[in-house]
Design a protein that fits this description.
It contains 2 helices and 5 strands; from the N terminus they run αβββαββ. It is α+β, with helices and mostly antiparallel strands. A hairpin with a 5-residue loop joins strand 1 and strand 2 (about 45-50).
């Protein structure tokens, strides 16, 4: 079991690619690696998330997986766009306030 896990980790490392988002021109578009400030359209409450790989995700630290429903809704959208995200409590609309390459 441990050996299989080690092989899995080694395989992930071999296939990993480091992306330095600070070298990518800022367009205001949400892409993997960006930090995104979004505001709930209904409550105007704002939160900031960093879109990261699956293995780096930690919601408590504001890091969401690129495969999460929220990140999937945000990817390829731009500052000022409004996205609808289906949650267990219903659909929530968020406005993309700012996209940062940090």
């Amino acid at each position: 079991m441990v050996e299989a896990r080690i092989r899995d980790i080694e395989g992930r490392l071999q296939n990993s690619v480091v992306i330095d988002v600070t070298t990518i021109p800022h367009t205001g578009k949400v892409i993997f690696g960006t930090t995104v400030e979004i505001a709930n359209v209904e409550t105007d409450e704002s939160v900031v998330y960093h879109i990261v790989g699956e293995d780096e995700a930690d919601f408590k630290l504001g890091k969401i997986s690129v495969g999460s429903p929220l990140a999937r809704a945000l990817i390829a959208k731009e500052e000022g766009d409004v996205v609808a995200v289906k949650t267990p409590g219903g659909v929530i609309e968020y406005e993309i306030v700012e996209v940062r390459h940090v």
